[in-house]
């Protein structure tokens, strides 16, 4: 069982929360819960509804699309961030590699927090705008390179 | 970074229309300035070089930089004392004095020693380079400056040409001394131009005069950052480098030319160097920077000039020395521009001006003088020749390169820090969490010391306050003795949240030695919330402090003591502050009153609760909630009745649960806010009231009740039996059936009812969500919420699965019908077969008789020309047609996809129409984004760098992202024919987000959607490669 402080420290690096202050993070830390999976367990399947954001506390997680591993995540990284905003279906599966401890936030809980706290909603808004700008810039760059070559 | 001027879209005339009164003097100023600069420089150099031997050259440098220093320091002092405007005018007077001295020289027909004339010329050069550039830089805001840049550059280069051509001509026909008259003529033009420009510009705003008082503090903070320190060192080193090269160049020139030839040569040389630097700025530097980054560009200067200097020294040829000097001059101008553009311009204007004049007035002259003294000493004591000096010069290169590398690295960090603000602490997170768990104060203090980002410091101290460490007095004592102001300030702010009495002695100790005003105010604030009335000898003197924040906090401290002789004075002061025009003061007053123990607290809060500024009101509401005094309940309730429903108000009212419930009167009109407060109170009595509202006839209230109910169940663990809610579910099912039938009709209705159809779809989705919410409450089941996520997914199989799952979950015969109902969706192929169709006018009548005024009004609006339907009275509706017009325009905007009709109505309230004439520029590329526009009538052209990309027509919007942040525009928009637009301002929209977080939630959902699309496109582009 983690204390609120430890949870806040775990939440801090998550990109979605990077514009939030300590107090706001505390509000989010209070709705998180902890789950653990044994080696080789499926955390979620491709196409499942996006119901949780997960943050890896301990262990490694592999991300698979159509049973092909595309990425491996280790402790400290988060996955399923955007699901917290729209609950849309998963675009990849996640499986544990070894014994994994995770911190998670559920979609409905988070939506309630967003509705109750304008500062959090605005902070996340700002982060999303930043993120889309970065994505657009990268996309344009890729497109240019594609047409160039 | 844009060193190249934006090409003007739509021709010069359109871009500069209406600004000729600024543009002409700016151009003339730039022209005359450069003509005078080049001529005066040449003139003084030639006079000096012909009259004195080579060994005296360093004296020239010293003299020159002394005047530069005096001019800059004067300007800087003026700037610190008064506003920009006045500083400019004062320096203008100084400039005039210098020129008058020059005029006197001419009048005396040059019957004075040649050194004096030369000195006069130096004064002019120094003054003009300090003053005129500062004036030009400070006159315009960044937006204007960007547009004026090409003109000013053109003026500069033409002035250079004029100076470069005029000097040889004057020298050969009239003699060197007559250049002085030519220079003076231009200087007077500069004066007039500056004066005229000052008259044309708007007066300095209030805000600026307010910020300028802190500019010394700002500068102090700036010098503490490693980036600025390195840059200053870099500038100083490069000035030394330049002085050495200059010495080398001038002494070589002196060997090769006679008096008249020298003037002509230097002026032509300067002209060419200026031209080359212009070209380099436009093409070369930008190209190199965009390709290899700033680090490479910064390294190029020493490498190129060093190479040239090395070659020149190897062969000791005059051409080589000249070429090296030429490259150095050309590149140096470009680099100066980079520095200003990239590093100084993002700072507040006042601070950047200060920094510039400080560099010019202190760092540059100091290094020139130091270098010159070095040269003088070398000449005296070392048998030095050009060859040996070259080696010294090359040795200088090494620190330059090291510094350039580290500065460019720092610069990059500075750039990315806004995006990845938290990297620094993240690196320390493991140690930090250890520090908080165990007793390792040193680790914590070290982490704090390594952190430069203020938000990081606040975060760490927040963590400290929430951990066990908050009991540790020693820790706070050492934190309060930290040399950095930010750490002390954030520590005090954190302490205010704890409000422990043990800290009071620490605060008194701090006040005795503290000099920073912000820290003093925060310490007094912490003192004011202590249990015992604070006693401190300094308090009465603080009442007359010139900082209002300190006055306020001191008054709050003193008012605690009822026997205080200052009571009346404090009360008067506090009453004054509760109406102070500065919002931040009112907010801090409202926040401080939350735990304040005095008779004034309630009086102050009662007044602040009626404040018209939302932020002040919110702070007062939160304080009122914390105080829980009966007298404060009534104003809170009246705010609620006025329709305010922001979360802070709900939280505050939920503190008054018993009084709130006892005053509950079902006969009075009820708002959504009332229901939410009930949800936050979440006692069985409150839940019982909520259940009755779940069947209310008005849709808005009904849904709010369900949401509040879900909150009560989720967060406060209230239990509800399925039986109490089943009637609610049943009535909601009836409603769903009703919506389905309407949808079946409007699916095939004429196009003008498309809007009604879309609204119905949204209502259907909301209705389904409420049903799932209700079921989840009935069965206390999280699974049902997950099922609902499946149900709303776009894939049909997922939906079918979800319904199967739901069927297995509910297991009640009467709810089987619900599952069947949910199966019918307007997208399904058999939808119109399953749903019983309605005949033509019946559907219209049903909509007109709908319980929801929103739907009724929409329909009425869209069917205005229907003559055979008996239309109800317009006055019965709550909306005007104008509002509806706006909503119908706003509905298709992607950003608002997930907003409900009610939320959209709030957005429409802040949307206003604006009209533009034909060919007007709505906004320019690179301007800060402040509005989102939707075209009501007309057409616009979207242009990037002067090239038309696309056209937008009626109903289309542009600049959506400007609502969420104010980053610069990426395109220019020009109207094509008369244009009418609906526009929403950034600040208005942000305020709306504050008032109603549900809007932010809807917007976030759309942003998530957009992000997903972008990510998919990115993947596709990657695989394409």
Largest sheet of chain B: 6 strands, antiparallel
Contiguous low-pLDDT stretches of chain A (5 residues minimum) are none
* Mean pLDDT metric of chain A: 84
Radius of gyration of chain A: 16 Å
Largest interface: A-B, 57 and 63 residues
Question: DSSP helix count of chain B?
Answer: 45
| Number of helical stretches of at least 4 residues of chain A | 5
Strand content of chain B: under 5%
Helix/strand-derived category of chain A reads alpha+beta
Q: Distance between termini of chain B? A: 29 Å
Strand order of the largest sheet of chain A: 1-8-3-6
Strand content of chain A: 25-35%
Q: Give the biggest sheet of chain A.
A: 4 strands, antiparallel
Question: Care to describe what's here?
Answer:
The complex is a heterodimer of chains A (149) and B (1025). By secondary structure, chain A is α+β, with helices and mostly antiparallel strands. Helices cover 41% and strands 26% of the residues of chain A. Chain A has helices at residues 4-11, 22-29, 83-86, 107-116, 118-148; strands at 33-37, 42-44, 52-58, 61-65, 68-73, 78-79, 93-96, 100-106. In chain A, a hairpin with a 2-residue loop joins β4 (61-65) and β5. In chain A, α1 packs across α2 (22-29). The model of chain A has no long low-confidence stretch (mean pLDDT 84). With 1025 residues, chain B is mainly alpha-helical. Chain B is 72% helix and 4% strand. Chain B is built from 45 helices and 6 strands. Chain B is globular. Residues 1-17, 203-213, 414-440 and 866-879 of chain B have low confidence and may be disordered. The chains are: A alpha+beta (149), B mainly alpha (1025). Chains A and B meet through α1, α2, α4 and α5 of A and α15, α17, α33, α36 and α44 of B.
Comma- or semicolon-separated keywords:
heterodimer, A: 149 residues, alpha+beta, four-stranded antiparallel sheet, 26% strand, globular, B: 1025 residues, 45 helices
């Amino acid at each position: 069982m983690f204390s609120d402080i430890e949870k806040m420290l775990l939440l801090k690096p998550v990109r979605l929360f990077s514009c939030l202050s300590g107090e706001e993070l505390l509000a989010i830390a209070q709705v998180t819960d902890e789950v653990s999976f044994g080696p080789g367990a499926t955390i979620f399947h491709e196409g499942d509804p996006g119901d949780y954001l997960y943050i890896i506390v301990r262990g490694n997680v592999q991300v698979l699309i159509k049973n092909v591993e595309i990425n491996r995540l280790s402790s400290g990284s988060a996955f399923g961030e955007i699901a917290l905003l729209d609950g849309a279906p998963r675009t990849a599966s996640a499986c544990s590699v070894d014994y994994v401890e995770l911190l998670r936030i559920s979609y409905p809980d988070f939506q309630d927090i967003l509705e109750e706290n304008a500062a959090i909603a605005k902070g996340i808004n700002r982060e999303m705008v930043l993120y889309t700008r970065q994505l657009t810039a990268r996309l344009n760059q890729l497109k240019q390179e594609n047409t160039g070559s | 970074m844009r060193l190249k001027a934006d090409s003007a879209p739509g021709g010069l005339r359109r871009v500069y229309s209406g600004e000729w009164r600024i543009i002409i003097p700016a151009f003339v100023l730039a022209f005359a300035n450069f003509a005078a600069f080049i001529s005066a420089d040449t003139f003084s150099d030639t006079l000096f070089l012909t009259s004195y031997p080579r060994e005296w050259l360093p004296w020239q440098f010293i003299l020159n930089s002394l005047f530069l220093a005096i001019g800059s320091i004067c300007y800087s002092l003026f700037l610190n004392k008064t506003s920009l405007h006045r500083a400019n005018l004062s320096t203008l007077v100084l400039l005039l004095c210098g020129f008058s001295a020059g005029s006197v020289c001419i009048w005396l027909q040059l019957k004075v020693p040649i050194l004096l004339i030369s000195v006069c010329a130096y004064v002019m050069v120094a003054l003009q380079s300090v003053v005129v550039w500062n004036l030009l830089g400070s006159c315009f805001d960044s937006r204007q400056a960007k547009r004026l840049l090409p003109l000013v550059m053109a003026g500069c280069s033409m002035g250079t040409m004029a100076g470069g051509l005029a000097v040889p001509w004057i020298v050969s026909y009239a003699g060197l001394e007559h250049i002085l008259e030519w220079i003076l003529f231009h200087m007077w033009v500069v004066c007039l131009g500056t004066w005229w420009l000052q008259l044309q510009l708007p007066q300095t705003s209030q805000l600026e005069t307010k910020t300028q008082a802190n500019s010394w503090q700002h500068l102090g903070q700036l010098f503490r950052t490693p980036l600025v320190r390195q840059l200053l060192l870099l500038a100083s080193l490069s000035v030394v480098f330049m002085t050495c090269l200059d010495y080398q160049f001038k002494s070589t020139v002196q060997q090769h030319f006679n008096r008249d030839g020298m003037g002509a040569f230097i002026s032509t040389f300067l002209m060419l160097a200026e031209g080359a630097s212009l070209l380099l700025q436009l093409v070369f530097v930008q190209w190199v920077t965009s390709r290899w980054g700033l680090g490479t560009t910064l390294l190029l200067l020493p490498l190129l000039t060093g190479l040239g200097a090395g070659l020149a020294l190897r062969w000791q040829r005059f051409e080589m020395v000249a070429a090296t000097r030429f490259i150095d001059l050309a590149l140096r101008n470009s680099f100066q521009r980079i520095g200003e553009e990239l590093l100084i311009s993002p700072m507040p204007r006042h601070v950047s001006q200060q920094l510039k004049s400080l560099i010019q007035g202190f760092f540059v002259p100091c290094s020139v003088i130091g270098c010159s003294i070095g040269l003088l000493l070398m000449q005296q004591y070392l048998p030095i020749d050009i060859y040996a000096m070259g080696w010294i010069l090359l040795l200088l290169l090494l620190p330059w390169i090291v510094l350039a590398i580290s500065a460019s690295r720092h610069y990059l960090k500075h750039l990315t820090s806004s995006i990845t603000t938290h990297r620094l602490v993240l690196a320390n997170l493991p140690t930090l969490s250890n520090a908080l768990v165990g007793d390792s104060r040193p680790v914590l203090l070290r982490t704090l010391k390594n952190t430069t980002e203020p938000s990081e410091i606040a975060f760490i101290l927040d963590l400290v306050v929430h951990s066990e460490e908050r009991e540790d007095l020693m820790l706070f004592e050492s934190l309060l003795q930290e040399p950095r102001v930010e750490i002390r300030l954030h520590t005090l702010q954190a302490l205010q949240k704890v409000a422990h009495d043990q800290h009071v002695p620490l605060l008194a100790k701090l006040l005795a030695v503290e000099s920073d005003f912000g820290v003093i105010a925060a310490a007094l604030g912490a003192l004011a919330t202590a249990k015992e009335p604070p006693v401190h000898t300094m308090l009465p003197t603080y009442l007359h402090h010139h900082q209002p924040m300190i006055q306020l906090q001191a008054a709050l401290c003193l008012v605690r003591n009822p026997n205080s002789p200052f009571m009346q004075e404090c009360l008067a002061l506090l009453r004054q502050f509760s109406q102070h025009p500065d919002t931040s003061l009112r907010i801090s007053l409202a926040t401080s009153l939350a735990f304040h123990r005095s008779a004034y607290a309630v009086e102050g809060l009662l007044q602040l609760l009626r404040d018209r500024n939302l932020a002040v009101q919110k702070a007062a509401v939160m304080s009122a909630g914390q105080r829980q005094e009966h007298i404060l309940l009534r104003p809170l309730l009246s705010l609620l009745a006025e329709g305010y429903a922001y979360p802070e108000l709900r939280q505050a009212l939920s503190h008054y649960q018993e009084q709130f419930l006892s005053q509950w009167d079902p006969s009075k009109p009820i708002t959504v806010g009332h229901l939410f407060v009930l949800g936050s109170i979440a006692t069985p009595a409150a839940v019982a009231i909520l259940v009755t509202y779940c069947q209310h006839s008005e849709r808005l209230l009904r849904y709010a009740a369900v949401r509040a109910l879900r909150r009560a169940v989720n967060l406060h663990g209230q239990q509800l039996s399925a039986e109490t809610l089943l009637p609610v579910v049943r009535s909601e099912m009836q409603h769903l059936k009703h919506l389905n039938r309407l949808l079946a009709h409007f699916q095939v209705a004429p196009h003008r009812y498309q809007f009604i159809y879309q609204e119905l779809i949204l209502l259907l989705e909301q209705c389904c969500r409420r049903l799932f919410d209700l079921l989840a409450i009935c069965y206390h089941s999280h699974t049902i919420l997950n099922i609902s996520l499946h149900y709303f997914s776009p894939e049909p199989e997922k939906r079918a699965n979800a319904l199967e799952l739901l069927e297995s979950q509910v297991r009640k015969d009467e709810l089987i019908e619900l599952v069947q109902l949910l199966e019918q969706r307007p997208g399904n192929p058999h939808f119109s077969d399953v749903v019983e169709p309605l005949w033509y006018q019946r559907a219209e009548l049903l909509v007109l008789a709908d319980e929801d005024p929103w739907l009724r009004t929409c329909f009425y609006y869209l069917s205005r020309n229907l003559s055979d339907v008996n239309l109800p009275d317009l006055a019965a509706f709550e909306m005007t047609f104008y509002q509806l017009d706006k909503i119908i325009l706003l509905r298709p905007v992607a950003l608002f996809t997930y907003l409900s009709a009610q939320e959209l109505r709030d957005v429409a309230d802040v949307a206003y129409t604006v009209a533009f004439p034909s060919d007007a520029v709505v906004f320019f590329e690179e301007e800060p984004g402040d509005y989102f526009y939707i075209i009501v009538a007309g057409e616009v052209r979207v242009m990037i760098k002067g090239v038309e990309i696309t056209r937008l027509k009626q109903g289309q919007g542009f600049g959506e992202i400007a609502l969420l942040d104010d980053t610069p525009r990426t395109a220019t928009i020009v109207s094509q024919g008369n244009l009418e637009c609906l526009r929403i301002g950034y600040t208005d929209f942000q305020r709306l987000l504050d008032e109603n977080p549900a809007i932010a939630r809807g917007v976030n959902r759309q942003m998530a959607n957009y992000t997903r699309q972008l990510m998919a496109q990115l993947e596709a582009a990657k695989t394409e490669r």
